[in-house]
Prior knowledge:
By secondary structure, this protein is of the alpha+beta class. The protein has 5 helices and 4 strands. Helices cover about 35% and strands about 25% of the residues.
Amino acid sequence: MAGEKLPVQIRTRKFIRNALLARRQFVVDIIHPGRANVSKTELQEKIGQLFKVSESNLIYLFGFRTVFGGGRSTGFALIYDNLESAKKFEPKYRLARNGLEKKREGSRKQIKEKKNRGKKVWGVGRRIARHKAKKNAD
């Protein structure tokens, strides 16, 4: 049973055609009895077929919550008209999830340590120290 894919029903609500951001946006309700949840890649394919979108990197899915008791999930979907508008309006972390942007390197701890090292250098030497640190990192 784990290998076979049980049927999934997709319903959309609150559909808005957002011309300013060149996208369609809506709430997605997924009914998936007998399954814990549905992967975003599978949902991208199904929503792509439903709205006749050829490229899956124009579809952004996020904010999914499974209802207590399982069997139903609700989330949000955006379908951009073209790649340029997606890159222009989507946040970097969502672009990275879809494979359009490079993911951030380094752990959270490393980022905080770098920030605190930068705070120790003050005044005119700050720009020079930042330049040297960048040169050493490359």
